[in-house]
Prior knowledge:
Elements: H1 6-22, H2 26-29, E1 37-42, H3 48-59, E2 63-67, H4 80-90, E3 93-98, H5 103-110, E4 115-120, H6 126-140, E5 147-152, H7 158-169, E6 173-177, H8 186-196, E7 199-202, E8 213-217, H9 227-234, H10 241-244, E9 252-254, H11 275-280, H12 282-295, E10 306-308, E11 328-330, E12 336-338
Parallel strand pairs: 1-2, 1-3, 3-4, 5-6, 5-8, 6-7, 8-9
Antiparallel strand pairs: 10-11, 11-12
The structure holds phosphoric acid mono(formamide)ester.
Phosphoric acid mono(formamide)ester binds near residues 46, 47 and 258.
Amino acid sequence: MRDFTRQEAEAVLFEAEKMEALLKTPEKCSRILPNRLVANMFFEPSTRTSQSFQAASSRLGAKTLSFHPQSSSAAKGETFSDTIRMVDGYSDAIVLRHAHEGAARLAADISEHPVINAGDGGNQHPTQTLVDLYTIKKLKGKITGLKIALFGDLRHARTMHSLLFGLSMFGAEMMLISPPSLSMGAPSIREAERKFNAKITAVSIKDLPQADVLYVCRVQKERFEDPREAIAAEGAFRVSAKLLKSAKKDLAILHPLPKVSEIDPIVDDDPRAKYFGQAKNGVPVRMAVLTRCIIGKGAKKRGQGEVVRFSCRNASCILRLQPAPQGGILGADGVARCRYCEQPARG
Ligand code: CP
């Protein structure tokens, strides 16, 4: 999300609206990216992001290359960078999901074609945030000034990190609700406050009646060092019909999905539950992103900011898997971050 200005994010949302309308005339859609090849490289499991990127590519007339790490030469020990270079040579754009933070940035550095981050470890999930912003705008007619409760595993969820940044950029007010062990990291909050003058407050679930949007996410088990802690955390919060009794009648309940146990299945029948429609919005939004990256102004965009010396110590950074030149970017908030995983220096 740090690659976007508000103006650019707004342009994507506007394009997505046009794509949604165009989906009613499939023959027109399929003339947008004919004869293009989009490589879907998912090193981590996915349903929505992988399927909606495939659907978006097909709707636009592009073809897709699929990649399965277990049946690729990555399983024989081929390096990440060699694998990326190969696929870059076969395609016009790469959609990449990886468990290591900064994998998409490193892939973009060594690729000739655009690389779209489809989720990198616990760092970012920018296209999910564009889907979320699009959904909120569609449901509420605006984003600025809304009170948005972020509820769940705010510490480990990349969706929450990207969303905090995206909502701050659009001037929403954020209410953070989580058990203490899953709270949002202070550097993310400080960055949004410094950069966007964002209003972010940690509150309790008792404050839910003030919210216009409730955005929930699951406990990100795969990011815990000790699985027992994840199991304990899962029992700490749940959205139930009883909890929603005190919420606004026009509350919108969103979730990036997959959901596990954090939302009672009975809530699916509540008209305020909008998460399945939110997932459907993934197609027009990703159509807009693909078009922008392949033939539009977003092509080959690099990380912004002054380059500074930086030695990354993040154990989840792609540099732990794939050696590459170290370096940092000085952000508009005055903080230096690893150019790959975007984590500030610790300690
Ligand atoms: N929201 C999301 O990223 O879902 P998937 O993991 O299924 O792609």
